[in-house]
Amino acid sequence: MKLLGKFFDTQRKQFSEGGKLAALYPFFEALETLFFIPGTVTQKGPHIRDNLDLKRLMSFVILSLLPPLLFGIYNTGYQSNLASGLTPKFADAFIKGLTIVLPVILVSYGVGLFWEILFASIRKHYISEGFLVTGLLFPLTLPPTIPLWQVAMGISFGVVIGKEVFGGTGRNFLNPALTGRAFLFFAYPANMTGETVWTFVSGMKTASVDVVSGATPLAIAGIKGASDLVESSLAEAGFTYLKLFWGNYPGTIGGTSTLMCLIGAIFLIVTGIASYRIMLGGVLGVLAVAYPGYVLSLFKGNPAAPMLSLHPFYHLVLGGFAFGITYMATDPVSAPGMNTAKWIYGFAIGALTVLMRIFNPAFPEGIMLVILFMNLFSPLLDHYEIQARLKKRVPNV
Fold first, then answer.
1. Which one of 33, 54, 225, 311 is most buried, counting C-beta atoms within 10 A?
2. In a domain, 97, yes or no
3. Is residue 227 located within the same domain as residue 366?
4. Are 184 and 295 contained in the same domain?
5. Those residues with Cβ within 8 angstroms of residue 329's Cβ, 6 or more apart along the chain or in another chain
6. φ/ψ of residue 385, rounded to 5
7. Does residue 390 form part of some domain?
8. How many structural domains is the chain composed of?
9. Does 360 lie in the same domain as 297?
């Protein structure tokens, strides 16, 4: 570490004001503080003492993302080897998954960091550590067969249009990672949806194998027909509740395993990084909307929408709900800051997700758009809670 510190000390003059690379000082500062605690201190009061700055906060989020990331790498390789007729052993699957997922992550970080450096240099401010999370969250929401040039397009849209045009981290009202994914979803739907995008086969990202590139669990649950047999249809397709909870099936890179997301959620709640109110509110929203339809289908039978007959607990493990409510909905910038607003915000996300799954079989997931939709209402929810609290104050007379 001493050699590394000496290297930064000798190169600092090149990036300081008047140096040849002064325009790139934000990049130099971000790289240095990645290894060392900044030596600068506040000279004038008031002073706020806190043991957790933005860089350390984002580091905690990165740590919470390791379970879904590592499992996603394994699952991607496992599904690829299974489809290609290769051995599904853990080591082989993990190495295969690493060759598929790592380029996506590198492109996301590389292209996104380029835009961060560019805007930081133009505005003459430091690079925000928030990108450390965005650059990893975005790839985990993508299918493993996504072309790398589309990864570059998506992260560019998310960083530039979703954040930088509003002034950078702290001023964006939409989640940048979800903004980039929404762009890809509507701009290149053939590479983001369907039955052939969830498994990387034989080193050819456009290849598909009928036996594994079938309907996703959500698509099966939304198929019209014998609506009282939705759970049976899932089981026949191999999607038992335990398998859905574990997440060992084709899907997005990091969004299939509810168990891994639960581990990350516990870590974020215990460390105080993410709001348990949003997460628990989302779960309550799912159950509150799903249970009435489920109970009604038990007595009436054969509801018009097949998903009405699905047990509410299935909604918690299907698709990317667990990943979305844990990592996307709790974004401290785009989510509300007031406690009651957080409950309402989370509840609305869970409720709207179930409604979209039930009444829109053509688009059974919905968690992505629901979170972006509720991002728009976050300032309004905070505003009304603040006004309600102000009205309760005793007039100063």
1. 33
2. yes
3. yes
4. no
5. 278, 279, 282, 335, 345, 346, 349, 371, 374
6. -70, -40
7. no
8. 2
9. yes
Look at residue 71 and tell me if it is in a domain.
yes
Same domain, 178 and 235: no
Which structural domain range is residue 74 located in? 54-191
- List, in order, residues 6 or more apart from 32 with CB less than 8 Å away: 8
pLDDT (tens digit, 0 to 9) for every residue of the chain, 397 residues total?
677 777 767 777 777 777 777 666 666 666 666 566 555 666 665 555 555 566 677 788 999 999 999 999 999 999 888 888 777 788 999 999 999 999 999 999 999 989 988 888 788 777 777 788 899 999 999 999 999 999 999 999 999 999 988 888 778 889 999 999 999 999 998 888 877 788 887 545 444 444 444 467 776 666 554 444 677 778 777 888 999 999 998 889 998 999 999 999 999 999 989 999 999 999 999 999 988 877 877 776 666 677 777 888 998 998 889 999 999 999 988 999 999 999 999 999 999 999 988 887 666 677 888 999 999 999 999 999 999 998 888 776 5
State the amino acid at position 241 in one-letter form: Y
